[in-house]
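Entry 14. Structure prediction run on the chain below.
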Amino acid sequence: MNKRILSITILGILPFLSLSQTNLELLPTYDPAAYAAPGNTVLMQADGKILLGGEGTGFGPKRLLPDGSLDPNFNTAVQNFNYLLDHSSGIYAFGNGATRLGQTGAVNLPIANTIDYFCYNNNTANSGNVNDVLQLEDGSIILVGNFDRIRFNAGGGSFIFVNSIVRLQSNFVEDFNFTLNTGTGFNGEVKCITFDTINDKIYCGGKFTTFNGNYVDGICRLNMDGTYDATFNSGSGFIQPTEFPTRMRMMNDGRILISGSTITNYNGNARSQNLMLNNDGSLNTDFVTTDTGIIEDFYEISNDRMITVGDAVQYVNSITGVSVNNSGAYGTVFLIPGSNTQPNMHQYSIQKVEEGIFLIAGTFTEVNGIARNKSAKIYMCDQDPNVDLTFSGGVISTDFIGDSYVWQAWDPTDTYELTLTNNTSSTFTPTEPGMYYLTSTNGACNFETSIDLTELSVSEMDQTSFTIFPNPTNGEIKISNLAFGSKIEICDLSGKIVKTASTEDSSLNIDLTSLNLGTYFVHVTDQNNQRTTKRISVTN
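Output returned:
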């Protein structure tokens, strides 16, 4: 251990990575054990709470607290939805309609122009569906899915005719000019939508072959006003109607990562489930995934590394598409799929919670053999998952749940290492001032942190269970507040036992006049083998 370096131990480096590479590990303090609904859609709230849910009969969105437990103050009757949106006017659940929820889950009364339901091919209520939602910086939203008309104002509003795409202003009023520019819209279902913030372009993917009379096999690009962008050339695109994208995400450099379980080809080029497009619609030939499984979502760590989620959670080189995990140096977080209620929709997502910690959500039931219902938190070993130390009542402790703990310490002058005993639990009782270090492990990750107790006095250390009086002493001492059946050992600084005693009483007198002047340790062990140590000084 390097007592000067308090960063987390790095497990390895790959030559093509710009950042050090480490394992992904499951965060044990997050456990959504009570959650049983689908996890197709997730919404992180500013206070750390998590709204989770998705398509499934009888399932409505649930809100989880930051530790994964159910929020007892949130309850809603809403069911069967594909997307959750946090809007300035409330939380919206989109599916075959749009429902506005309050912070307790109660269904709010519709505001003006609220969508009643979506239709497809007829006027039957709820026969259409919203698959994906794009929220823009100005508060407006674009809805895509499988619908050809929308009815506004519950209980008798009028229809507007839109083919699988509509833009609503921030007050949920239809953007008429956008609808006018989309014309006849799509001739099939739109599965996904994403936005290029660099060039202000809108990308749509799904089961369609035309947009407003233009041939586009499964993918097209629109301008911000809803007009078709002919400069994006996808060629023959995807093999419709059997192959289509279900997820599209923008890379920071403007490339587009596309995935779909049915994809085998793009514009005549063989690609399995995943592909990367350049900004002009051409295939990015540098990016080829052969060992990652499907990639449904990702978070970019650097310009050449990302964490992906799909069949597994893993590091992938964002330039080449190669799974970094498969080099053999780093562990993949494997997901065990649960029931899939939407085989032609995306199933997984990843969102950053805080630096180095990520929330993954989907249809899985296990993560690396550990039960996790539809969501889990993972962290990178090159990030510290809040391994903090506190000193209270004479005890140093950490609330980090790990596999093992080792304490070490150096004297206040930093010249020699202190001899510690009982130093392999999450708490430690210091007996003298110094700099104390904890090395904790979780899976393959090692973490180091420290606490400075160099300025504390002996009296500040001695705040735990039993007491010694007088201390310092020149003769007999009395040890009080002892547990029944306690055993006492007094050791010198070398660890040699110089006196022993035992008692069934709560106090005991021990004569130390035969000991040389100096510092000694008093170890008290109770019947449960719990050991507490304090320091005593023998003086003239």
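The two ends are 39 Å apart (CA to CA).
Filed with the rest of this week's runs.
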